[in-house]
Amino acid sequence: MRVVLALIGLLALADTAQLLAQLRFKLDIAAKRLSLEELSRVIPALDSVNLPPGFQIDQLDVSGPLGNMEITFAGHDGDSRVSGKLLVDLRAPERRVQGVADFANVDAGRWLGQPALPPDVTANVEFDLRLSARDGRTVVNGTYAVRSPDVSLAGYRATSVRAHGRVEDRTITIAQVRARAYSAAIDARGRMTFPEGDAGTRYAFDGTVAGLDLRRLPRSMRAPAIASDVTAGFHVSGAGPAMSGRAQLSPSTIAGAAVGGGTVLEFGLSDAGFRYAARGAVRGLDLQQVAHGLGIDARASNRFSSAIAGRFDVEGTRDRLVGASIVLTDSRLFGASVPAATVRAAETPEGWQFGVDGQFTALDLAAFGAGAKDDGALAGHLNVSGSVTGLDDGFEVSSDLAVEGRVTPGPERGGRDDDRGRRHRGAAGRRRAAPRRRPAGRSRMAGDGGRNVRPRPPCGDRCPVRREGRAARSDWRDVRKATRGDRFTGGHHRRCRDARRERVVRRSASRIRRDRRLGSPRRIHRLSPARRAVLVHGIGARRRRIRRGRGPDAHRRRRGFGVCGT
Amino acid sequence: MMTPRLVRWLAWSAIGILAFAAASWLILQTNWSRVRLGRLAARQAERFLDANISVARIGGDLYSTAVLEDVVIRRDGSSIIEIGRLSVHYDVIDLVLGGRTFQRVELDSPVIASGGGSGFALSGLLKPRPPSDRESPPIRIDRLVIRNGTVVIGPEPAEVGGMRVPDRITSLAAELQITQRPGGLEVRIHRLSMYGSGPEIAVTAVTGTVLAGATDLTIDNLTVQLEDTVFTIDGTIENYDSGEVARQ
Questions:
Q1: B98 touches chain A (CB under 8 A)
Q2: How far apart are CA B152 and CA A513, in angstroms?
Q3: For the CA atoms of A415, A418, A422, A425, what is the dihedral angle to 10 degrees?
Q4: Which has the closest alpha carbon to A285: A245, A243, A328, A318?
Q5: What is the spatial distance between Cα B243 and Cα B248, in angstroms, rounded to a whole number?
Q6: B239 to chain A: which residues are within 8 Å by CB?
């Protein structure tokens, strides 16, 4: 019988539920292998933590009663290490966990089973959380503060991260988060809510970003490499896959241009698709810098040297530009001064529709690549509209560009060459006296991809297109490439322009002399090294002058039209 | 020189003792006597337990082995402990001389209905006993074997210190050594395994030593092995008042 009593006494050891509150623990625990998924079945508080299977607890010292238990812990999984000190109250119904934890090189995505989370987290976290049971689940409320020297998430990186806020059941409130990312200082606050069920996460953030330089953004963002210093306030909100955002710029600098305060950028992503809108003011915008940032050929971008001032209003979707209007004031564009102009563009199912209405002065025709015959300056009023089609299917100026309107040359003219200017004045005068109108009511004019809307001289009798049709245009591509960058504007047929360009080249005595001595750049590369050395040394002095930007052909050097070996 | 009369008395005494022993042995082998003995044991146990005890049958030779079958401990009309077979191996001479050493105790298919919820049915099972001046001899069980045990915590989910206790523990198997020492009751766990359900958890192996003192519970190298987890515990749990446990 005493045996039975002893057994009952042993069984009573397990009957200590009512005594747990008064117990004082002083335990050292070490785990060679740990599966929190397994332990979370009996310790629900561990349910949200998903440590990897290989995680080892190096140290777990537990001391004190359940109501005021001190826990010192340290563990690791490969290079990932976590340690900390907690003060917990495990007495029901509301348990409390407060303390500090240090994470070093922790793969948060792997630990928490969320691949989107950063793979290398080094952070110090302070928290004071209360855990209670509600509807069969653990409800967490409390505060937290996070400090991290370096956080990488989804390919983006932030440094000097400081954040603090509250956790209220399924809502995480970020009272403030400060960080530096890509030379920008970010200060934000917001809230994230994780609803029950399949409903997506709801979030809303407000904040400011200062000193953003587009050149320092990661390549994955495909941002143009434009020097900038952007300061803006932003608001981003969303629910599940849908999101929207709004940024209001403070006075900033983009590509040397001053972007006025109040410039607003908006975007939205919903079931209807992606949409965006931007409106604001800019001053001193240099298209050349923008073109350079966008990776456009430097030689071609010379003609974009400009200083644009005005207001813009752009709206679009992922597939098309709904509408854009730019009101230019006191701008300089393509060498011309534009006191006032309005440019409108929109994309329709039939193609691009555009319209230009404004004044211009001192328009340098050479900036459009006109040939020597067309060089000069022009002033007047422009009011044209047109359409561009076939951009996705082999754009042809002759068939895909339609422009209709009026160009009214003004009284003020100027140019580098008086004779040329007179020729232009004469031609312009005739147009002003009797503006040419096509019988169809819609004239076809040659354009440079729609950028330069001005009349082209008609094709002459030597136009190869007229003679041979449009089938063999590719024959002239080599000629066109060899003379790329020359100031030339030909007729509205590309082959015609190419042919005229070649004629201009061949008429140039200096170029002919140069060609005789050096040959074209492409031909020089084909020469033998010995022959090339003779030619190069023979013109060494001339080459050096060209390098220094002086000499008669320095402009060719500046355009990258160098000589062999440069 | 021993007188013939004295020799005669000694002979008759020996014969009497042998006859008593034979008679008692014969009586103990009868079903009637064993039922009576079981009732006697139950009455003795009820002096210490706040419950009703019934033993269906007592087997074994009773000199070195006692086998109690269908032991049921009831409280408030419901059974809280059922043991299909409880066999105890001992040295009767040691017991007669006041020893409390059992070579082997085996429990087959014990079922413990703990009650679950906020209070366990085992609470208050032991009657409060007044302190005694007599020092009882230490209890020692060299080998306590439990086979196919079951612990029913109860239909209500039990939670202790933030831990969910399984509703039901089955396949409980253990091999323990229990020694009562001056410092307390030492339980040396050679092997222990069980399977818990609601929540599901399998304890594949537990080894180590637990010393239950008067106020402290000392854990020495207690290794717990689950399916994917292995951890070792060392330390003490203070303010563990075994007397209060006993009082409850």
A1: no
A2: 108
A3: 20
A4: A328
A5: 9
A6: 22-24, 65
DSSP string spanning B182-202?
TTEEEEEEEEEEEEEETTTEE
Mean pLDDT of A86-100: 84
Residue A209 pairs in a beta bridge with A186, A232
Shortest distance between the Cα of B77 and any Cα of chain A, in A, equals 19
In chain A, which among 432-491 make CB contacts under 8 A with chain B?
none
CA angle A38, A193, A48 (to 5 degrees): 10
pLDDT at A242 over 90: no
Between the alpha carbon of residue B195 and those of residues A62, A187, B169, B171, the distances in Å are 27, 53, 6, 6
Distance from the Cα of A39 to chain B's closest Cα (Å) equals 8
pLDDT on residue A126? 94
A188 strand-pairing partners: A177, A207
Q: List all residues 6 or more positions away from B191 whose beta carbon is below 8 Å from its beta carbon.
A: B173, B174, B175, B205, B206, B207
Q: What is the CA radius of gyration of chain A?
A: 36
Helix (H, G, I), strand (E, B) or coil at B1: coil
**Distance from C-alpha of A135 to C-alpha of A142, rounded to nearest angstrom:** 19
A204 with A227: CB under 8 angstroms?
A: no
Q: Do A90 and B88 touch (CB under 8 A)?
A: no
ipTM reported for the complex, 2 dp: 0.74
Mapping DSSP onto H, E and C, the string for A321-373 reads EEEEEEEEEEEEECCEEEEEEEEEEEEECCEEEEEEEEEEEEEEHHHHCCCHH
Closest chain A residue to B163, measured at CA: A43
Say yes or no for a CB contact (<8 Å) between A11 and B232.
no
Check: pTM over 0.90? Answer yes or no.
Answer: no
List pLDDT tens digits, range A293-335: 766 655 555 666 788 899 989 888 877 778 889 899 888 877 7
pLDDT in tens, A32-51: 888 877 888 887 767 666 66
Percentage above 90 pLDDT, chain B: 26
pLDDT digits (tens, 9 = 90+) for A414-463: 433 333 333 333 333 333 333 333 333 333 333 333 344 444 445 555 55
B119 part of contact set with chain A, CB < 8 Å? yes
Find chain B residues with C-beta within 8 A of A25's C-beta.
Answer: 235-238
